Amino acid sequence: MNLQKHPTRNAPRGPVVLTVMDGLGLGDGDEGDAVALARTPTLDWLMALSSSTALVAHGRAVGMPSDKDMGNSEVGHNALGAGRVFEQGAALVEQALRSGSLFDGETWRACIERVQGSGQPLHFMGLLSDGNVHSHIDHLLGMIERAATEGVKKVRVHMLSDGRDVSGRSVLGYIDRLEATLSRLCAKGFDYKIASGGGRMHLTMDRYESDWGMVERGWSTHVRGEGRAFTNAREAVETLYGESDVTDQHLGAFVIADGDGPVGTICDGAAVIFFNFRGDRALEITRAFEDPNLAAFDRGPRPDVLFVGMMQYDGDLQLPARFLVKPPSIDRTMGELLAGTGRTQLALAETHKFGHVTYFWNGNRTAMFEPRQERYLEVNSGGGELQLRPWMKAAEVTDVLLQEIDRGMAPGRAFDLVRVNYANADMVGHTGDLRASIMAVEAVDLCLARLVAETRRREGVLIVTADHGNADQMYDGRGEQRKVRTSHSLNPVPFVIFDPRGAPEMAPHSAPGLANVAATTLELMGLAVPEGYEPSLLA
Question: Which end of the chain has the least Cβ crowding within 10 Å, N or C?
Answer without folding.
Answer: C
